[in-house]
Amino acid sequence: MNTSETSQNIHDEIVLLLPRLRRFARNLVRNPHDADDVVQVAVERALQRSAQWRRDARLDSWMFKIVRNAWIDEVRARGRRDKLFLAEETGENVGTEPIESEITNMSVQAAMQRLPEEQRTAISLVLIEGLPYKEAADVLEVPIGTLTSRLARGREALQALLGN
Amino acid sequence: MSIPDETLMAFADGELDPAARAQVELALLEDPSLAQRVARHVALRQRVRSAYASELTEPVPQRLLDAARSQAGRTNNVVNLQAARDAKARDAAASKTAAYGWRPAAAIAASLVIGFGLGYWDLYRDQTATPLARGADGALSARGALAKALSTQLAASQSASSEVHIGVSFLAKNGEYCRTFSLNGPVSPSGLACRHGEQWRIESLGQSSDAPSQGFRTAGTDLSPQTLRAIEERIDGETLDAAAEDQALHKNWRK
Q: Which of A39, A79, B34, B97 has the fewest CB atoms lying closer than 10 Å?
């Protein structure tokens, strides 16, 4: 009854963000069902901690950070990342090994899967979710220079994987 | 001039500050191969973005909707008070910036930037309902929230959180009223629209150059070079002050 308009707003705003949160989570987690689990955990945490969200900060960045942290916790807790989560090794060599024509028609999604996690998340936040560098760096808790170089390397690798 | 690829990438992403951007624009004029590299960055960005666009339209599972709507972790009053204070502060800041001036054009590299501007616009487009329509004559005109803001929003009284920010308004030499605008969004397009009959025709389009991370910009203070040039070409006298702007609005932007 005494739910104010503002506290109602955060629920509504999170509902609106759900498609983007799911999309981001799927770039972290291979299995879409697991990705949704991570989003669910993140949404629950966000609502518990909504007092920590400053209204002048972007809700999307704040939520992406919680999604990513939920994923990291999940990886640690389960200790089964090879099974449930992207094996990072698959992407580790991108950019250092020559990438040849066998993959000329690779889809963007397939190419993304081959990137190391740190490059994939940088690409995901900036190119797909449209965050400014500063916001993306904040989500990943890295300096902006680190974000920029991950982004540059990720783009280079994608460009090579996608051809042209 | 040699420009590191990371700088070109940041330029393509609209992340450079005005000084660094001007430097890149100059270099682009001197070296067309740089423009190609920038175009590659823009193209990749668009390709990646559009590859993932369809995921946004997938139905969201009920369990996630339920989690988001759950009142279990309901926010307390502290956050609400803070929110109210912040909103108030933003509104106050918005009205303080009401007296805009427009910067004289540096007017460099205008033709190059216009292409990138349109690229940015495509990026923006799939995030919200498109605010532009292309008429039979090929001219772009404003629609939706942008058209509404151009017709009804006064620079002096607009809210900091509104989707569209109006910058300056002026009367053009051809007798049309023109207004600059910028949109809140990840790539913050900005431009100039002039009232042509019943429509707001887009005369210039580009990207606002300051980082959009604050969610609110002082519209009109940081327009792209081609928009500044477009203003210069058209303006008859000075920009409208708040009273003249209000009057023009009440005459439905007819002279």
A: A79
| Number of other residues whose CB lies within 10 A of the CB of residue B116 | 23
Catalogue all structural domains in chain A, each as residue range(s) with its CATH number.
1-85 (1.10.1740.10), 101-164 (1.10.10.10)
Cβ–Cβ < 8 Å for A119, A91: yes
Chain B contacts of A133, Cβ < 8 Å? 10, 13, 15, 211
- Measured between CA atoms, the residue of chain A closest to residue B44 is A159
Q: Which residues of chain B have pLDDT under 70?
A: 1, 72-130, 134-136, 138, 185-189, 206-223
Q: Do B68 and A47 touch (CB under 8 A)?
A: yes
DSSP state of B75: -
Task: Report how far residue A130's alpha carbon sits from residue A127's, in angstroms, rounded to the nearest whole number.
Answer: 5
ipTM: 0.81
Q: Does A118 touch chain B (CB under 8 A)?
A: no
Question: Phi and psi of B236, rounded to 5°?
Answer: -110, 100
The residue among A2, A40, A155 with the most chain B CBs within 10 A of its CB, best to mutate, is A155
**Rg, C-alpha atoms of chain B:** 20
